[in-house]
């Protein structure tokens, strides 16, 4: 990103402060053009580029870089930034506002750790953890689903609406001795619908990522058993051992 576009992006960051600003850099007629985008993410610590703005930028020229700001924070990329950068396949520029310090990252094959990853809804959340466990431990690619923060409060029921298309079937949750490694446990955490998922690791342990916390291995008992609503099993799970 050249100095002119850095100035435009910095002005955009000032306009959006204290929320994160986001935009795209495109090549139009051989020149870099900065395209400011609307951030439709929830809160002040994340960004989601409006789909209409992404399409508009794509029509304007070839998208070659993603930009966003870190309000009152250093420009060092978070785990979610690195994961999302890999997904886009593009370089990312990050500016600390109002400090004006810059950093850039590029896709290098980064994969967030299964345990100890930071929370970022839609990028590093409980379903992302399930997907990553399946591909890393069993070589099974699960589909991703577009989701916004607190979708369960918006009249959506994403887990129950989509587990079938992800290849899962319901298994018996009443007999917990029948749980197998890799079974996915759906849970209802302060929600009208199941809104949390964990992977059963065997030996009474689960792997999960609760909102606002680091992902962790925990004992499957007490509260977690109480709020469990469904156990799901993938038919290909044990064919990939």
Automatic annotation (TrEMBL):
UniProt entry keywords in alphabetical sequence: Hydrolase, Metal-binding, Metalloprotease, Protease, Thiol protease, Zinc
Family note: Belongs to the peptidase C40 family.
Pfam families xrefs: NLPC_P60, Prok-JAB
Molecular function, one GO term: metalloexopeptidase activity
Residue ranges occupied by any NlpC/P60 domain in the UniProt entry: 95-235
CDD domains on file: MPN_NLPC_P60
Protein name (Swiss-Prot/TrEMBL): Peptidase P60
């Amino acid at each position: 990103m050249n100095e002119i576009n850095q100035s435009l992006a910095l002005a955009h960051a000032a306009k959006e402060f204290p929320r994160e600003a986001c935009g795209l850099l495109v090549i139009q007629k051989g020149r870099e053009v900065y395209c400011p985008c609307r951030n439709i993410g929830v809160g002040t610590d994340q960004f989601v580029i409006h789909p209409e703005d992404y399409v508009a930028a794509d029509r304007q020229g070839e998208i070659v870089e993603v930009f966003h700001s870190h309000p009152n924070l250093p420009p060092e990329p978070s785990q979610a930034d690195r994961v999302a950068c890999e997904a886009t396949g593009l370089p990312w520029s990050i500016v600390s506002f109002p400090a004006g310090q810059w950093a850039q990252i590029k896709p290098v094959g980064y994969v967030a750790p299964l345990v100890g990853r930071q929370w970022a809804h839609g990028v590093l959340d409980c379903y992302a953890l399930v997907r990553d466990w399946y591909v890393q431990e069993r070589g099974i690619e699960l589909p991703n689903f577009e989701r916004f923060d607190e979708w369960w409060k918006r009249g959506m029921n994403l887990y129950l609406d989509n587990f079938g298309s992800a290849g899962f079937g319901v298994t018996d949750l009443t007999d917990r001795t029948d749980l197998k490694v890799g079974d996915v446990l759906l849970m209802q955490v302060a929600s009208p619908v199941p809104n949390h998922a964990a992977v059963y690791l065997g030996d009474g342990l689960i792997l999960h990522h609760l909102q606002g916390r680091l992902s962790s291995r925990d004992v499957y008992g007490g509260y977690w058993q109480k709020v469990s609503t469904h156990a799901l099993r993938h038919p290909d799970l044990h064919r990939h051992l």
